[in-house]
From TrEMBL:
Entry's family note: Belongs to the D-isomer specific 2-hydroxyacid dehydrogenase family.
Protein name from the UniProt record: 3-phosphoglycerate dehydrogenase
Pathway given in the UniProt record: Amino-acid biosynthesis
UniProt keyword Oxidoreductase, yes or no: yes
Full-protein interval shown: 1 to 301 of 393
UniProt domain D-isomer specific 2-hydroxyacid dehydrogenase NAD-binding: residue ranges: 93-271
Amino acid sequence: MYTIKTYNAIAEEGLKKFDVENYQLNQTDDPDGIVLRSQNLHDMKFSSQLKAIARAGAGTNNIPIQECTEKGIVVFNTPGANANAVKELVLASLLLAVRPIIEGVEWVKTLEGPDIDKKVEAEKKRFVGSELAGKQLGVIGLGSIGAMVANDAYRLGMDVVGYDPYVSVDTAWSISSRVKRVLSIEEVLTTSDYITVHVPLLDSTRAMISAEKLALIKKDAVLLNFARGELVDLDAVISALKKGQLKSYLTDFADERLIEMDNVVVLPHLGASTEEAEINCAKMASKTLKYFLETGNIVHS
Ligand code: MLT
Protein backbone atom coordinates (compact mmCIF):
# COMPACT_ATOMS: atom_id res chain seq x y z
CA MET A 1 0.00 0.00 0.00
CA TYR A 2 1.44 3.37 -1.06
CA THR A 3 0.41 6.72 0.38
CA ILE A 4 0.32 9.79 -1.80
CA LYS A 5 -0.16 13.39 -0.77
CA THR A 6 -1.65 15.77 -3.31
CA TYR A 7 -1.54 19.53 -3.08
CA ASN A 8 -4.37 20.35 -5.40
CA ALA A 9 -7.70 19.01 -6.50
CA ILE A 10 -6.61 18.44 -10.07
CA ALA A 11 -3.69 16.25 -9.05
CA GLU A 12 -6.05 14.35 -6.77
CA GLU A 13 -8.55 13.86 -9.60
CA GLY A 14 -5.70 12.61 -11.78
CA LEU A 15 -4.78 9.99 -9.23
CA LYS A 16 -8.34 8.89 -8.62
CA LYS A 17 -8.75 8.15 -12.31
CA PHE A 18 -6.18 5.39 -12.09
CA ASP A 19 -6.11 2.15 -10.26
CA VAL A 20 -5.97 3.41 -6.69
CA GLU A 21 -6.40 0.02 -5.13
CA ASN A 22 -2.93 0.14 -3.68
CA TYR A 23 -3.02 3.82 -2.80
CA GLN A 24 -4.23 6.00 -0.03
CA LEU A 25 -4.64 9.67 -0.77
CA ASN A 26 -3.90 12.41 1.74
CA GLN A 27 -4.24 10.23 4.78
CA THR A 28 -0.77 10.67 6.12
CA ASP A 29 1.92 13.29 6.70
CA ASP A 30 4.47 10.64 5.88
CA PRO A 31 3.68 9.87 2.21
CA ASP A 32 5.59 7.73 -0.29
CA GLY A 33 4.92 10.24 -3.03
CA ILE A 34 3.76 13.81 -3.55
CA VAL A 35 1.90 15.26 -6.55
CA LEU A 36 1.81 19.05 -6.67
CA ARG A 37 1.52 22.06 -8.93
CA SER A 38 3.00 25.41 -7.77
CA GLN A 39 3.16 24.97 -4.00
CA ASN A 40 6.52 25.99 -2.59
CA LEU A 41 8.27 23.05 -0.91
CA HIS A 42 11.49 24.88 -0.05
CA ASP A 43 10.71 25.05 3.67
CA MET A 44 9.14 21.65 3.93
CA LYS A 45 10.54 18.89 6.17
CA PHE A 46 10.57 15.73 4.08
CA SER A 47 9.58 12.50 5.74
CA SER A 48 11.96 9.54 5.71
CA GLN A 49 9.36 7.58 3.76
CA LEU A 50 9.19 10.00 0.80
CA LYS A 51 10.46 8.46 -2.44
CA ALA A 52 9.30 10.78 -5.21
CA ILE A 53 7.80 14.18 -5.99
CA ALA A 54 5.83 14.63 -9.20
CA ARG A 55 5.49 18.22 -10.38
CA ALA A 56 2.38 18.63 -12.54
CA GLY A 57 3.97 21.23 -14.80
CA ALA A 58 7.29 22.11 -16.40
CA GLY A 59 9.27 24.16 -13.87
CA THR A 60 10.64 22.48 -10.74
CA ASN A 61 11.96 25.63 -9.06
CA ASN A 62 9.35 25.30 -6.29
CA ILE A 63 11.10 22.10 -5.15
CA PRO A 64 14.51 21.98 -3.36
CA ILE A 65 16.18 19.70 -5.91
CA GLN A 66 19.57 19.55 -4.21
CA GLU A 67 18.09 18.52 -0.85
CA CYS A 68 15.92 15.91 -2.58
CA THR A 69 18.93 14.52 -4.44
CA GLU A 70 20.90 14.25 -1.19
CA LYS A 71 18.01 12.40 0.45
CA GLY A 72 17.46 10.10 -2.52
CA ILE A 73 14.05 11.58 -3.32
CA VAL A 74 13.37 11.48 -7.07
CA VAL A 75 11.83 14.62 -8.59
CA PHE A 76 10.22 14.70 -12.02
CA ASN A 77 8.03 17.05 -14.02
CA THR A 78 5.55 16.48 -16.86
CA PRO A 79 7.48 17.46 -19.98
CA GLY A 80 5.32 18.84 -22.77
CA ALA A 81 2.02 18.24 -20.95
CA ASN A 82 1.13 21.92 -20.83
CA ALA A 83 3.29 23.14 -23.72
CA ASN A 84 0.39 23.78 -26.07
CA ALA A 85 -1.39 25.96 -23.49
CA VAL A 86 1.69 28.10 -22.89
CA LYS A 87 2.38 28.35 -26.61
CA GLU A 88 -1.15 29.59 -27.33
CA LEU A 89 -0.84 32.29 -24.66
CA VAL A 90 2.53 33.41 -26.03
CA LEU A 91 1.07 33.66 -29.55
CA ALA A 92 -1.96 35.58 -28.22
CA SER A 93 0.41 37.96 -26.44
CA LEU A 94 2.44 38.49 -29.59
CA LEU A 95 -0.79 39.50 -31.32
CA LEU A 96 -1.62 41.81 -28.39
CA ALA A 97 1.78 43.40 -28.86
CA VAL A 98 1.00 44.46 -32.42
CA ARG A 99 -2.75 45.13 -32.40
CA PRO A 100 -4.41 47.39 -29.81
CA ILE A 101 -7.08 44.79 -29.12
CA ILE A 102 -7.62 45.58 -25.43
CA GLU A 103 -7.71 49.33 -26.08
CA GLY A 104 -10.19 48.88 -28.94
CA VAL A 105 -12.54 46.70 -26.89
CA GLU A 106 -12.44 49.15 -23.97
CA TRP A 107 -13.14 52.10 -26.29
CA VAL A 108 -16.15 50.44 -27.95
CA LYS A 109 -17.66 49.87 -24.50
CA THR A 110 -17.64 53.66 -23.93
CA LEU A 111 -19.73 54.39 -27.04
CA GLU A 112 -23.41 55.21 -26.79
CA GLY A 113 -26.28 56.19 -29.07
CA PRO A 114 -27.72 55.08 -32.38
CA ASP A 115 -24.70 56.13 -34.50
CA ILE A 116 -22.12 53.85 -33.01
CA ASP A 117 -21.17 52.45 -36.40
CA LYS A 118 -20.47 55.99 -37.72
CA LYS A 119 -18.35 56.85 -34.65
CA VAL A 120 -16.42 53.64 -35.11
CA GLU A 121 -15.68 54.34 -38.77
CA ALA A 122 -14.69 57.94 -37.99
CA GLU A 123 -12.31 57.09 -35.17
CA LYS A 124 -10.94 53.64 -35.81
CA LYS A 125 -7.71 55.11 -37.16
CA ARG A 126 -6.75 55.55 -33.49
CA PHE A 127 -6.33 51.79 -33.31
CA VAL A 128 -4.09 51.04 -36.27
CA GLY A 129 -1.68 48.24 -35.42
CA SER A 130 1.05 46.41 -37.29
CA GLU A 131 1.59 42.82 -38.43
CA LEU A 132 3.74 40.01 -37.15
CA ALA A 133 4.34 38.60 -40.63
CA GLY A 134 7.78 39.52 -41.88
CA LYS A 135 9.08 40.46 -38.41
CA GLN A 136 11.75 38.41 -36.68
CA LEU A 137 11.03 36.40 -33.55
CA GLY A 138 13.99 35.21 -31.49
CA VAL A 139 13.27 32.17 -29.33
CA ILE A 140 15.69 31.56 -26.46
CA GLY A 141 15.29 27.94 -25.32
CA LEU A 142 13.99 25.32 -27.74
CA GLY A 143 12.50 22.75 -25.38
CA SER A 144 8.92 21.61 -25.77
CA ILE A 145 7.37 25.09 -25.36
CA GLY A 146 10.02 27.10 -27.20
CA ALA A 147 9.96 24.71 -30.15
CA MET A 148 6.16 24.92 -30.42
CA VAL A 149 6.27 28.73 -30.27
CA ALA A 150 9.00 28.78 -32.93
CA ASN A 151 7.11 26.47 -35.29
CA ASP A 152 3.79 28.28 -34.98
CA ALA A 153 5.29 31.77 -35.19
CA TYR A 154 6.81 30.64 -38.47
CA ARG A 155 3.34 29.56 -39.62
CA LEU A 156 2.14 33.10 -38.80
CA GLY A 157 4.64 34.39 -41.33
CA MET A 158 7.38 35.45 -38.93
CA ASP A 159 11.08 34.90 -39.56
CA VAL A 160 12.18 32.81 -36.61
CA VAL A 161 15.62 32.33 -35.11
CA GLY A 162 16.17 29.97 -32.20
CA TYR A 163 18.97 29.52 -29.71
CA ASP A 164 19.47 26.62 -27.34
CA PRO A 165 22.88 25.30 -26.35
CA TYR A 166 21.48 21.92 -25.28
CA VAL A 167 18.89 20.87 -27.85
CA SER A 168 20.22 18.80 -30.74
CA VAL A 169 18.97 19.15 -34.29
CA ASP A 170 17.25 15.80 -33.87
CA THR A 171 15.19 16.99 -30.95
CA ALA A 172 12.04 15.00 -30.41
CA TRP A 173 10.11 18.26 -30.66
CA SER A 174 10.74 18.53 -34.41
CA ILE A 175 11.75 22.13 -34.79
CA SER A 176 10.87 23.19 -38.29
CA SER A 177 13.83 23.48 -40.62
CA ARG A 178 12.47 26.96 -41.35
CA VAL A 179 13.51 28.03 -37.86
CA LYS A 180 17.06 29.25 -38.24
CA ARG A 181 19.23 27.86 -35.45
CA VAL A 182 21.80 30.39 -34.27
CA LEU A 183 24.89 29.74 -32.19
CA SER A 184 24.72 32.59 -29.76
CA ILE A 185 22.18 34.37 -27.61
CA GLU A 186 23.83 37.61 -28.77
CA GLU A 187 22.72 36.90 -32.35
CA VAL A 188 19.13 36.46 -31.19
CA LEU A 189 19.23 39.69 -29.20
CA THR A 190 20.86 41.90 -31.82
CA THR A 191 18.69 40.82 -34.75
CA SER A 192 15.18 40.12 -33.43
CA ASP A 193 12.11 42.39 -33.31
CA TYR A 194 10.42 40.13 -30.74
CA ILE A 195 12.31 38.00 -28.21
CA THR A 196 10.71 35.24 -26.17
CA VAL A 197 12.41 33.31 -23.38
CA HIS A 198 11.65 29.61 -22.75
CA VAL A 199 14.35 28.24 -20.47
CA PRO A 200 14.02 26.67 -17.00
CA LEU A 201 14.93 28.75 -13.94
CA LEU A 202 18.31 27.46 -12.73
CA ASP A 203 21.24 29.14 -10.97
CA SER A 204 22.81 29.48 -14.41
CA THR A 205 19.75 31.13 -16.00
CA ARG A 206 18.64 33.44 -13.15
CA ALA A 207 18.68 37.05 -14.45
CA MET A 208 20.13 35.83 -17.75
CA ILE A 209 18.36 38.75 -19.46
CA SER A 210 20.69 41.22 -17.74
CA ALA A 211 21.44 44.92 -18.32
CA GLU A 212 24.37 43.83 -20.46
CA LYS A 213 22.16 41.61 -22.62
CA LEU A 214 19.40 44.23 -22.85
CA ALA A 215 21.93 46.72 -24.18
CA LEU A 216 22.32 44.45 -27.23
CA ILE A 217 18.62 44.40 -28.08
CA LYS A 218 17.41 46.29 -31.16
CA LYS A 219 15.81 49.60 -30.27
CA ASP A 220 12.04 49.15 -30.09
CA ALA A 221 12.18 45.38 -29.69
CA VAL A 222 9.54 43.61 -27.58
CA LEU A 223 10.47 41.12 -24.84
CA LEU A 224 8.16 38.27 -23.79
CA ASN A 225 8.68 36.19 -20.66
CA PHE A 226 6.25 33.36 -20.05
CA ALA A 227 8.80 31.04 -18.44
CA ARG A 228 9.76 32.47 -15.00
CA GLY A 229 9.92 36.06 -13.76
CA GLU A 230 13.40 35.63 -12.29
CA LEU A 231 14.92 34.92 -15.70
CA VAL A 232 15.09 38.67 -16.29
CA ASP A 233 16.82 41.35 -14.24
CA LEU A 234 13.62 43.30 -13.70
CA ASP A 235 15.31 46.58 -12.73
CA ALA A 236 17.29 46.41 -15.97
CA VAL A 237 14.11 45.67 -17.97
CA ILE A 238 12.33 48.66 -16.38
CA SER A 239 15.29 50.90 -17.10
CA ALA A 240 15.39 49.70 -20.75
CA LEU A 241 11.64 50.42 -21.05
CA LYS A 242 12.05 53.91 -19.55
CA LYS A 243 14.96 54.71 -21.86
CA GLY A 244 12.91 53.55 -24.86
CA GLN A 245 15.46 50.83 -25.64
CA LEU A 246 12.75 48.22 -25.21
CA LYS A 247 9.32 48.96 -26.70
CA SER A 248 7.36 46.72 -24.36
CA TYR A 249 7.55 43.81 -21.92
CA LEU A 250 4.88 41.10 -21.90
CA THR A 251 5.02 38.67 -19.02
CA ASP A 252 3.06 36.07 -17.08
CA PHE A 253 4.72 37.10 -13.78
CA ALA A 254 3.35 39.98 -11.74
CA ASP A 255 5.57 42.35 -9.79
CA GLU A 256 4.50 45.60 -8.17
CA ARG A 257 7.20 47.48 -10.07
CA LEU A 258 5.43 46.61 -13.34
CA ILE A 259 1.79 47.23 -12.50
CA GLU A 260 1.66 50.96 -13.23
CA MET A 261 3.78 50.91 -16.37
CA ASP A 262 2.11 51.66 -19.72
CA ASN A 263 4.31 49.67 -22.04
CA VAL A 264 3.94 46.46 -20.05
CA VAL A 265 1.34 43.70 -20.16
CA VAL A 266 1.29 41.51 -17.03
CA LEU A 267 -0.80 38.35 -16.85
CA PRO A 268 -1.43 36.46 -13.60
CA HIS A 269 0.61 33.28 -14.36
CA LEU A 270 -1.99 31.89 -16.77
CA GLY A 271 0.32 30.07 -19.18
CA ALA A 272 -0.66 26.56 -18.14
CA SER A 273 -4.18 27.46 -17.02
CA THR A 274 -6.36 25.64 -19.52
CA GLU A 275 -8.65 22.74 -18.71
CA GLU A 276 -6.76 20.58 -21.17
CA ALA A 277 -3.30 21.36 -19.80
CA GLU A 278 -4.37 20.84 -16.19
CA ILE A 279 -5.77 17.42 -17.03
CA ASN A 280 -2.73 16.46 -19.13
CA CYS A 281 -0.33 17.44 -16.34
CA ALA A 282 -2.35 15.74 -13.60
CA LYS A 283 -2.61 12.52 -15.60
CA MET A 284 1.06 12.43 -16.53
CA ALA A 285 2.23 13.26 -13.00
CA SER A 286 -0.06 10.68 -11.41
CA LYS A 287 0.67 7.88 -13.86
CA THR A 288 4.41 8.47 -13.75
CA LEU A 289 4.43 8.54 -9.95
CA LYS A 290 2.39 5.36 -9.70
CA TYR A 291 4.68 3.56 -12.15
CA PHE A 292 7.79 4.82 -10.35
CA LEU A 293 6.58 3.63 -6.95
CA GLU A 294 5.77 0.22 -8.37
CA THR A 295 8.81 -0.32 -10.57
CA GLY A 296 11.48 2.22 -9.67
CA ASN A 297 11.51 3.49 -13.26
CA ILE A 298 10.45 6.86 -14.64
CA VAL A 299 8.45 6.51 -17.84
CA HIS A 300 6.33 9.50 -18.80
CA SER A 301 3.02 8.57 -20.35
C1 MLT B 1 4.85 25.24 -15.39
O1 MLT B 1 5.95 25.31 -14.84
O2 MLT B 1 4.58 24.35 -16.19
C2 MLT B 1 3.75 26.19 -15.00
O3 MLT B 1 4.23 27.22 -14.23
C3 MLT B 1 2.68 25.39 -14.38
C4 MLT B 1 1.64 26.07 -13.56
O4 MLT B 1 1.07 27.09 -13.93
O5 MLT B 1 1.33 25.51 -12.51
